Amino acid sequence: MSRITLDLDALMKNGQIDDAEAARLKGFALPEPKTGLLVNILLIFGAISVAGGTIALVPNAGTGLFLALLALGGAEFLRRSATGNSLKTLGSALNLMGTLGVAGWIGWEFREVDDGTMPTVLIAVVMTASAIWFRSALLAAFAVLSLGAILGSGTGYWHASYALFVEEPTITIIVFSLLSAGLYHTRERLGDAWRNMTTIAARTAMFMVNFAFWVGSLWGDRVGEHWFAPDRWSERSEWREAAMSIP
After folding, report:
1. How far is CA 145 from CA 69, 139, 168, 216, in A?
2. Which pLDDT band, with edges at 50, 70 and 90, does 224 fall under?
3. Which residues cross the membrane (predicted)?
4. How many Å apart are CA 27 and CA 21, to the nearest integer?
5. Helix (H, G, I), strand (E, B) or coil at 154
6. DSSP line for 184-245
């Protein structure tokens, strides 16, 4: 039985075939053996083990950043050199590990700053750039969520409790509604390679819109308080405790 290997991405890039022809040819491909997925999973666990052992030996932020950049380099190498989808899962995992590692390093380096705008902006830029470069739908969703952090959304954790919050519901609703509408409008003009990522990002933006509606309906909103009067809530709470206390 004769076999023919075609690099569909290269053929599309050179203009030799279009998206429809690439999809048709891809439908004729033989299914990949399941052993390929097992090999990818074993390699991913190996990479995680090496990273964990290295950080345990040299526990500092610089080690984490080096490993994150190394993972991104490995993901880029696989993206350029690997043929077919044999190592696609490994490349996606390395990309995710590297991007989250760089984002974690930024958060660690700026952990003591009073204004968290700069680190959240940097993390959003890293997530967005990585999602676009590697065409990752998962990182596209993370990029949208990191944009929410710039507007005052986030999570909190303490003993046996987990919290989600939106400090600017009105602004969050407006920004993410526009973002979702823009992404949905743009995806119709993009190729198949970008359409899935754009759709995931748009749906994540709609999730943020619904989440902001929910929080706003429970607690109301004072527009702009997150930036212009960040201490007003704590001041009101302190005044209430002092005014209602009985000596």
Report:
1. 22, 10, 14, 18
2. low
3. 36-55, 90-110, 116-134, 198-219
4. 10
5. strand
6. HHHHTTS-HHHHHHHHHHHHHHHHHHHHHHHHHHHH---TTHHHH-TTHHHHHHHHHHHHH-
